């Protein structure tokens, strides 16, 4: 290897290390958008979970629903069907690759609008005349450094009587299926963006802490109206009405 080639490789590694965690995550999810979409559509029981989450929001025709971290758009048709053509669905995600897949999926739903943005600072304004009626977040609560603050900001966005629904995956507490938790921990590590996989602390422990904080925040801001578990206890659906 020449000195020039060695220097080029060093500069490449330096640029990679200097990228922000957000930029790394965006690149990661863009690269694997097709695989994530396949999992989102074909994982056992996932369709019933998405139906239940959409139903838990109790959407009426003509309302506006926002999905934070909409990914490849697997939930968006469920929401669009409930608000109808006179309603509106806004999908927010920071990864352009997954939004491209979502755009293809929602072509037949003109009431769906996709926005590239950060779910912790969503590009959706609260308007006294036309505030979103509901926010859905599926499998994203564990990505936030301060999930309690994020969920509280969503409660502020929809305002009193608005609805929030969180759908998340975590280790099961069902004694019958706990032997499967090591496999779940391995899945979390493999599917985590670069950087989070190599940290000394367990990615699953970090995920669990964040999910507990997110769901407690929902409970503190809302009257809980819906709580269920699915997929052998690994999936949780919790929804409420903002007080």
What this model shows, in words?
The chain is 44% helix and 19% strand. By secondary structure, the chain is α/β, with parallel strands linked by helices. A seven-stranded mixed sheet has the order 3-2-1-4-5-7-6, with helices on both faces. It starts with a helix and ends with a strand.
Secondary structure elements and their pairing?
Blueprint lengths: L2 H16 L2 H11 L1 H10 L3 H11 L7 E5 L7 H8 L4 E6 L2 H10 L6 E5 L17 E5 L8 H12 L4 E7 L11 H11 L11 H19 E9 L4 E8 L1
Parallel strand pairs: 1-2, 1-4, 2-3, 4-5
Antiparallel strand pairs: 5-7, 6-7
Helix pairs in contact: 7-9
Global morphology = globular
How much β-strand is present in the residues? 15-25%
Span between N and C termini? 65 Å
Residue-averaged pLDDT, rounded?
A: 83
Helix content: 40-55%
How many separate helices?
A: 9
Unreliable spans: 4-16
How many beta-strand segments? 7
Order of strands, widest sheet: 3-2-1-4-5-7-6
N-to-C SSE string, H for helix and E for strand: HHHHEHEHEEHEHHEE
Largest sheet: 7 strands, mixed
Task: List the main descriptive attributes of the protein structure presented here.
243 residues, alpha/beta, seven-stranded mixed β-sheet, 44% helix, globular
